[in-house]
Each structure stands twice: as C-alpha cells, then as structure tokens.
Amino acid sequence: MAREPVILNVYDMYWINDYTSPLGIGVFHSGVEVYGTEYAYGGHPFNFSGIFEIHPRDAADLGDHFRFREAVLLGYTDFTEPEVRRVVEELGKEFKGDCYHLMSKNCNNFSESFTKV
C-alpha cells in the first residue's frame, strides 16, 4: 500500500505581505505536493482545466510576484500516483481556467478540495 506524504506549499503573492503578514493578513498562493509534483490552480480564458503542475516549491515557475513561504505536511495518502493523477483530472472538470475567481474559486479553494479527496 502506498504511503506518500501530502504537503501544502504556501507562497507570498506580493511584496506587501512583508508588511501585512505580522498582522495575520496577506495574499497567498498554495499548491499541493504529492509524488514529487506540485499541483495548483490558476485562471485563464478557456473552458478547460486550470490545474497545472510545477516543480515543488519553485516560485520562479509561478512568476515574479511569488516567493515561497512554507511547506506544511498535511498527512499521507494511500492513493497511488496514477490514482492521484485521476483525481486531479476529475477536479479539472470543476476547476476550469475560465471559472477562476479571486475570492470564491481560487488556488486555495483548489488545495482544500484536493486534500479532502
């Protein structure tokens, strides 16, 4: 049986977090790392999955406005790598690029949904 760590990777999205995070507020991006791949969600103008893969904790893959903040071990999965990929494919039907919304359907909502499967 597989016993693979599931890690939530958190990124600062803007320089302003240097000032606001001590107050407990900020703008953050998250992705879920499993089997050496980080899965995240972002918007684009098309009606297909907005889920993408990056190298874990590689803020450069996300763009200039991102900086890696922390990794949080959420637990372990017994899903195999192909099963994880099928879950991501199914979630892509819900998390389409043209459905992205900064407040109600964003990367953090995806991370939450993915880790509840």
Question: What can you tell me about this protein's structure?
Answer:
The protein has 117 residues and is of the alpha+beta class. The chain contains four helices and five strands, in the order E-H-E-E-E-H-E-H-H. It has a five-stranded antiparallel sheet with strand order 4-3-2-1-5. A hairpin with a 2-residue loop joins strand 2 (28-34) and strand 3 (37-41).
Please write the string of helix (H) and strand (E) elements: EHEEEHEHH
Q: What is the arithmetic mean of pLDDT?
A: 95
Spatially, the strands of the biggest sheet line up as: 4-3-2-1-5
Give the tally of β-strands. 5
Largest β-sheet summary: 5 strands, antiparallel
Write the layout of secondary structure elements.
Layout (H helix, E strand, L loop, with lengths): L3 E9 L4 H4 L7 E7 L2 E5 L9 E4 L4 H4 L4 E11 L3 H14 L12 H10 L1
Antiparallel strand pairs: 1-2, 1-5, 2-3, 3-4
Q: Key features?
A:
single chain; 117 residues; alpha+beta; five-stranded antiparallel sheet; 5 strands; globular; PPPDE_sf
